[in-house]
Amino acid sequence: MKIYYKLNLLIIFLLVILTLIITASVNVRMSDELEHEMLERELTIAEYVTEDLANPLLQKNAIAVNEIIDNVMIRNTDIRYIYVVDFDGVVVAHTFSQGFPVYLVTANPIPPNEKNAVRVFSVEGESIQDVGVRVLDGMDAKVYFGFSRANLITSINKTTNTIVSTVALVLLLGIVMSFLLTRTLTTPIEKLVEGMNRVAEGDLDFQVEITTSDDIGVIADSFNRMTAERKRTEEALRESGEKYHLLADNTLDCIWQINLDFKFTYVNPAVFQLLGYTQEEWIGSSLSDYCSPENMEFMLNLAKEEIKKGNNSNGLIFETELFHKNGEIIAVEINEKIIFNDDGNPVSIQGTTRNITERKQAEEILRVEQNKLVNIFNSMEDGIYIVNQDYDLEYVNPVLMKDLGEWEGRKCYSYLHDREEVCPWCKNQDVLAGKTVQWEWKSDKTGKIFDLIDTPLKNPDGSISKLEIFRDITERKQAEDEIRKLNTELEQRVAERTAELEDKNAELERMNKLFVGREIRMIELKKQIAELEKEKG
């Protein structure tokens, strides 16, 4: 088939696909916009109505509630029904003339933490969008509206028909234009194909005649420059190879390549700094000359496993030991990859080797320090555990293990609380953010009360774990409770004794008043007797 026909068929196919995509995407976008606008209007109506219904519902004024929803139905012809659920979950008003359909109560529930809920039903052949809105946040009083989707569906259908008609016209024009355009394009392209065949046969001096200044002319001009560029490209490739060798010769890592017999076919000069050998000494030697039999078997097994993966092999990084020329054992990190040919068969192994002696020494120092820290934790009387950001336990000291058992492979919330999910009171997020938190906790497993100190612990890789110290304060809390109890009893006794003293003081005061009154009356009687005696005398 000629390129003219192929190009026309391709353009027609692309135009058809493009028009279908445009039609579908525009139709979906317009439908979404109309749906969104309809929902916004419905929610706005619902919010206004719920504001009007709040006070009548609180006052349990059913007449006012019915008046409000009846007025809403009159003003909005697309609303098919409204019903109101009071604060006790009872339907107190509705607009159904044939009785309220009870299935609606559970058809569109509003989630506990949401203000509204929307659901589409099909009722008697009509699409209805049921919108439920809470009257007041956090309460069960709700209002439900049934909005007809007939206008929305009509608008969507009209929009779809308009889009389809427009796109069909554009498609027809596109097909006509494609036939005209391809006729103009294919003639110079056929000449260009002829020239490419000549060059492919080795005629690098062939030049395509340029008759136009459009893109085809540009392509022809580019083709004419191709032969000259090819020579320059070959020169550039040669220079690039020299640069690669320059880079490989001056890198600090040892770069090497070995065949499947594990004999070295290439190594850069860095091998001298790594193991003391020259390139001439190294190339042609076997890997087994520079390692122990155990390490050689280890590396052979790794290579065999990678070869089994075929082209799915992504390479591997591992650590081992090699012999320096002076007899010293050098810790190294090897990054290697199996090289496969076009048929998927392994042909060689290449990679890099790096001296990691200093890193291993630093890791050993860190391990010793960690062991010291673990020994300290193990000897402490307080309980201690360490947990990472994923709630995985990393360490538990013997004090806690004595009460709670083995911890390996468990989450902290499972180990400490027998829970299957993160504890609501967990302090991990605060601690991992850098805070130190002190709080108290009572274990349901042991009944003990602990004073807890949670503090962030920075790991060598930069991640953060949580270190928690448990101090048993059960006896102290019991003593505090006993002291509070004794204080309460003492206060009660003091109050009782004070009441007794107050009663006795009141009695004494009453008796004192009686004696004083009697003395006053005796004095008055004596005065009266004295006056009578004077009168008689």
pLDDT under 50 segments (min length 5)? none
Specify the overall morphology. flat
Rg of Cα set: 47 Å
The main sheet comes to:
5 strands, antiparallel
How many beta-strand segments? 15
Q: Identify the strand order in the major beta sheet.
A: 2-1-5-4-3
Order of helices and strands: HHEEHEEEHHEEHHHEEEHEEHHHEEEH
Which structural class should the secondary elements be placed in? alpha+beta
Between the first and last Cα atoms, what is the distance in angstroms?
173 Å
Give the helix tally. 13
The fraction of residues assigned to DSSP E strands is 15-25%
Kindly report the average pLDDT value: 82
Helix content: 40-55%
Q: What keyword list fits this structure?
A:
537 residues, alpha+beta, 5-stranded antiparallel β-sheet, 13 helices, 15 strands, 54% helix, flat
Topology record:
Elements: H1 3-58, H2 62-75, E1 79-85, E2 91-94, H3 104-107, E3 116-123, E4 126-134, E5 142-148, H4 150-200, H5 215-250, E6 254-258, E7 264-267, H6 270-275, H7 279-282, H8 293-309, E8 316-323, E9 329-340, E10 346-355, H9 357-379, E11 383-387, E12 393-396, H10 398-404, H11 412-417, H12 428-432, E13 437-442, E14 449-458, E15 464-472, H13 474-536
Antiparallel strand pairs: 1-2, 1-5, 3-4, 4-5, 6-7, 6-10, 8-9, 9-10, 11-12, 11-15, 13-14, 14-15
Briefly say what this structure is.
It contains 13 helices and 15 strands.
